[in-house]
Design brief:
By secondary structure, this protein is an alpha+beta fold. Helices cover about 45% and strands about 15% of the residues. A hairpin with a 2-residue loop joins strand 3 and strand 4.
Length: about 120
């Protein structure tokens, strides 16, 4: 049985879509609400290794633009601090299934996670 972790926020349409996708396929889902609990540095590192910061940060999103980040050069630790305070800076949801990870609404990756778990 697939054990899927979804990192997102409750008011995100994409996060709810991911949760619904896996629940409809009877996968065990652990939802981590980033609005209540910041993502662990080790966990975000997995996503950064796979997608890089440019792939994780939603540069077109409202939170990014309102924070004025378009015009700032931040170090990785500064960016991580901002993300801990405002998960809306990320392309949500972040989904992990075993060794596979995905960013944003990505049903092809989600299907691959289920297929890998089915073995």
């Amino acid at each position: 049985m697939a054990n899927i972790q979804i990192f997102g926020v409750r008011n995100s349409q994409a996060t709810r879509a991911a949760e619904r996708f896996f629940k409809e396929r009877r996968a065990a889902v652990q939802m981590v609400d980033l609005g209540k609990k910041a993502i662990a540095a080790g966990e975000i590192k997995r996503f950064v290794e796979r997608f890089g910061w440019p792939g994780l940060v939603d540069t077109e999103g409202k939170a990014y633009i309102e924070a004025g980040l378009k015009y700032l050069k931040l170090t990785e630790s500064e960016l991580m601090g901002r993300i801990e305070r405002d998960p809306g800076l990320l392309r949500l949801p972040l989904v992990r299934g075993g060794k596979l990870v995905s960013v944003g609404h990505d049903e092809a990756s989600w299907k691959a996670m289920l297929a890998a778990a089915a073995g």
